[in-house]
Amino acid sequence: MRIVVIGAGVVGVAAAWALRQAGADVIVLEAREGPALETSFANAGHLAVASGPWAAPDVPGKILRWLGREDAPLLLRLRWDPPLWRWGLKFLANCTASAYEQNARAIATLAQLSWNETTRLREELAIADDVNREGVLTLYRDPRDLETAEKKRDRLAAQGVAAEVLDRAALVAREPALASAAHRYAGALFSADAETADCRAFTLGLAAAAAERGVLFRFRTRVAEVLVEKGRACGVALEGGERVAADAVLLAAGPWSARLVQPLGLSLPIYPGKGYSVTVPIAGRNGAPRHAVIDEAHKVYIARFGQRLRIAGTLELGGFDPTPSPRRAAATLERLRSLFPDGGDFARAEYWTGLRPMTPDGRPLIGATPIPALWLNTGHGPLGWTLACGSALLVASLIASTPAPIDPTPFSPSRF
Ligand SMILES: Cc1cc2nc3c(=O)[nH]c(=O)nc-3n(C[C@H](O)[C@H](O)[C@H](O)COP(=O)(O)OP(=O)(O)OC[C@H]3O[C@@H](n4cnc5c(N)ncnc54)[C@H](O)[C@@H]3O)c2cc1C
Predict the structure, then answer these.
(1) Are residues 382 and 366 in contact, defined by beta-carbon separation less than 8 angstroms?
(2) Is the CB of 195 under 6 A from ligand 1?
(3) For residues 193 and 113, what is the distance between their CA atoms, to the nearest angstrom?
(4) pTM beyond cutoff 0.85
(5) Across all residues in the chain, what is the average pLDDT?
(6) Per-residue pLDDT tens for 226-274?
(7) Residue 384: CB within 6 Å of ligand 1?
(8) Distance, CA 11 to ligand 1 centroid (Å)?
(9) What interhelical angle do 384-400 and 199-212 show, nearest 10?
(10) How far apart are CA 277 and CA 332, in angstroms?
């Protein structure tokens, strides 16, 4: 079976690997000059097994409160954009407590599968991705939020994830690099069962291993159209006119996925959610944290990759333009500096923005489409690194008609 995978982000590369392992002939077509140069390039790196979707009960209120604030953690740019409004209504419908619970449960199952597979591949293929297993500290400002932390700890315990609520003194004892900023926080939730690693480095390592095992990568190759003959996907046409024939096509084009299949009459509920990251070299400074850190109030995630420190996060809904807002970029760097004033050489900061492929319920779209032989593995939103290797196993099993490693129903594209 010859399969074309569109997109060489972490999701497409992981799927190409899994499909090759299942015995397929795989060709990956990627518009950019190498793997992981779009959304998988400089994300926060959290393998966030215990994360829920962004659509949560407290989110609509926050978005309204923050409307028009340029440095808001969640920024909705109000404009005439029918896809955004259609997507937004579905997102709001997923902000109820029961939808949140249901979505979070489905994501957790896929995340656990993915974590096991990511760990296995890292070890088996000796991929150097600066994995950090010191655990994650989620910071809370208000003493009342520690009750939320306690509830989260109990929920995690039910999932088999160990976590501990720390007061301010215990927080500083665990992470002395937070000493100068700790007075702003009431405490934290510490989870040892969480890790961070460099998504791009992993993707490059996995792509190299896949190429060695026969996956063909074609870079600087933009797919213009998915070809359908007699109602069935039969390959793709490239920009310039060349046709690449295939028995099946797997769409893993991240935030650009919806555009590619729209001409076929498919409407995928994926909207780009812009996020920022800033990476600084630690450069011998003494104040970089050992742990990964999450500041819930500002929706930012901090990770240490060897001798680099990165802060990433925030969400901006306003279309496909990747141009950074200078104010948001500066605010992101300031958050890092205010937490870890001696954490790195801030003068050498590297700024980046990426577009998360967001679905309204936070669950990716994995599975068949109404067009036979056209498959989806996309819409991983804020959790593509966390979910990529598990999604790859799932979609490969569906395409090969072998037993699925987990129930695929919650991820079926037909739910929309
Ligand atoms: C600021 C930020 C922080 C994040 N932090 C985390 C985190 O801590 N943990 C986590 O799990 N996730 C995180 N994410 C989310 C994660 O980065 C994404 O979910 C993931 O990278 C999506 O991967 P992908 O392969 O689907 O998309 P991409 O990496 O964007 O890959 C899609 C590829 O398809 C290619 N393509 C598109 N159209 C075509 C075409 N027509 N022809 C050929 N190729 C095409 C693109 O060039 C691109 O390379 C974060 C994202 C952001 C923005």
Answers:
(1) no
(2) no
(3) 14
(4) yes
(5) 95
(6) 999 999 999 999 999 999 999 999 999 999 999 999 999 999 999 999 9
(7) yes
(8) 7
(9) 30
(10) 7
CATH of domain 50-95+130-195+271-356: 3.30.9.10
275 has pLDDT over 80: yes
Asked whether 34 and 264 are in contact (CB, 8 A), the reply is no
Q: Cα–chain-centroid distance for residue 235?
A: 28
Tell me, in angstroms, the distance from the centre of ligand 1 to residue 355's CA: 7
Q: Is 254 in the pocket of ligand 1 (CB under 6 A)?
A: yes
Return phi, psi of residue 34, to 5°: -170, 180
Could you give the C-alpha distances from 263 to 160, 225, 228, 266, 358, in angstroms and in order?
44, 8, 11, 7, 20
Same CATH topology for 2-40+201-270+362-415 and 50-95+130-195+271-356?
Answer: no
Domain ranges of the chain: 2-40+201-270+362-415, 50-95+130-195+271-356
The answer to whether the CB of 294 falls within 8 A of the CB of 138 is yes
Q: What pLDDT, on the 0 to 100 scale, is given for residue 51?
A: 78
Structure-token pair, residue 63:
């978005």
Q: How far apart are CA 231 and CA 117, in angstroms?
A: 35
- Asked whether the beta carbons of 95 and 63 are under 8 A apart, the reply is no
Q: Span 2-40+201-270+362-415: which CATH code? A: 3.50.50.60
Alpha-carbon distance of 381 to 411, in angstroms, equals 13
What is the position in ligand 1's atom list of the atom closest to the CA of 40? 21
Ligand 1 nearest atom to the CA of residue 275, by list position: 1
> 248-251 and 374-378 as β-strands: parallel, antiparallel, unpaired?
parallel
Which residue shows structure tokens 């109602």? Answer: 231
Best of 310, 333, 385 for a ligand 1 pocket test (most atoms within 8 Å of beta carbon)? 385
Distance CA 44, CA 221 (A): 28
Within the chain, what is the greatest distance between any pair of CA atoms? 67
* Residue 304 identity: R
**Cα 357 to ligand 1 centroid, rounded to whole Å:** 7
pLDDT in tens, 395-413: 999 999 999 999 999 999 9
**Does 300 contact ligand 1 (Cβ within 6 A)?**
no
Pairing mode, strands 2-6 and 248-251 = parallel
